[in-house]
Amino acid sequence: MVMVEPLRVACIGMGWWSDVLADAIKRSGKLKIVACYSRSEPKRQAFAGKYGGRASPSYEAILADTDVEAIINTTPNDAHLETTRAAAAAGKHVFLDKPIANTVSEGRAIAECCRQAGVVLALGYQRRRESQFRWIKRQIDDGVFGKLVNAEANISRDRLGKIDLSSWRYQAVGMPGGVMLQIGIHYTDVLEYLMGPIKAVSGQFVRLVLPGDNPDVASLVLEHENGALSTLNASYASASEYYLMNIYGKEATAFYDMHRGLRMLKRGEQRPVDVACANKDTFVEELEEFAAAVRGGGRPEVGGEYATTSLAVVRAGILSAREGRRVEVAEILAKD
After folding, report:
1. pLDDT (tens digit, 9 = 90+) per residue, 88-140?
2. Could you say which of 21, 90, 261, 319 has the lowest number of CB atoms within 10 Å?
3. Alpha-carbon torsion 194, 199, 200, 204, what sign?
4. 3-state secondary structure of 139
5. What is the pLDDT of residue 3?
6. Which helix (H) or strand (E) holds 331?
7. Any idea where the domains of the chain sit in the sequence?
8. In this structure, are residues 77 and 102 in contact, taking their beta carbons and an 8 Å threshold?
9. What's the burial of 180, exposed, middle or buried (CB within 10 Å: 0-12/13-18/19+)?
């Protein structure tokens, strides 16, 4: 058996999500953290102490480090282009947390600079990898659902008293669209993965509970290219964390929620049947897929082109809410 050396990575952008991915890297063993960088020296020293590797004095030092093969990028959205462009120019592969950017033009530029440099770009959309969604996708592909007609989804968390208004994640300038861009985009992705490409969006965004200037509740109606309609509600103002995804087809329906798991009901049956789905480590899976792609083993499931279109879906919802009209995704891709 040929032993493959772990992919040597540097983590940039020290925050709570950098730790989530670093923990997954430690669980995997197929990647190794050899360096890290944050503008905050205490943060990078603490990260290096916890996960190993060098606390680099600058991002330039990381890019010049021949021991670093790839960058795990959890910087703020508006820094994605600058940091990824520099990484690509230095020949470093990039795993970038979603969303790819705050604007479609920057997302497209990120994808293009990686393509031109010949480096792998992968985006962190781990929700689609959850066992229940993989199972539903297989049933759809096998024709069990028949014609897809409708879906409804909810992704909610309780952030009351838990947000830091100085963080870019909770400011309109850093996270335009608020809760929908920060967590709702996970379920626009799952809906697109299961129901097919989204062609138009109608949206409403409000701030009801949390302080600050960003929406904490948002709703989208999504029109899929196959004619099906989906609805998505995202909230940071709920009393508890909750996830829901119901997929309706002409011949079958799948019901998923985080408390009851996955159930399936086929046409003519009276009661849904429970479907057992094993827990899986989606973070390890996506990072190992990235590492394999760098080593020449296939391509990441979510790359720059799709991630840019995924961003355009949310941007269409933002524009729809602002102007009170249905917005086609193609319009956003053409001008955003």
Report:
1. 999 999 999 999 999 999 999 999 999 999 999 999 999 999 999 999 999 99
2. 261
3. positive
4. helix
5. 60
6. helix 329-335
7. 7-126+284-300, 131-279
8. yes
9. buried
The yes-or-no verdict on residue 327 having pLDDT over 90 is yes
286/278 Cα distance (integer angstroms) = 17
Q: How many residues does the chain have?
A: 336
Say if residue 1's pLDDT is above 60. Answer: no
pLDDT of residue 253: 98
Q: Please report the pLDDT score of residue 336 as a whole number.
A: 87
276: left (phi over 0), alpha (psi -120 to 50) or beta: beta
**For residues 306 and 110, is the Cβ–Cβ distance under 8 A?**
no
Strands of the 217-224 sheet, one edge to the other: 273-275, 261-266, 252-257, 237-249, 148-158, 229-235, 217-224, 198-206, 327-328
The reply to whether CATH 3.30.360.10 applies to domain 131-279 is yes
Q: What is the pLDDT of residue 2?
A: 55
Position 275 confidence tier, pLDDT thresholds 50, 70, 90: very high
Question: Which residue from 78, 97, 79, 89 is spatially nearest to 113, judged by alpha carbons?
Answer: 89
Identify residue 253 by its one-letter amino acid code: T
pLDDT confidence of residue 63: 98
Give the right CATH number for 7-126+284-300 from 3.40.605.10, 1.10.1200.10, 3.40.50.720, 3.40.980.10.
3.40.50.720
Cα 302 from Cα 224, distance rounded (Å): 19
The pLDDT, as a whole number, for residue 42 is 96
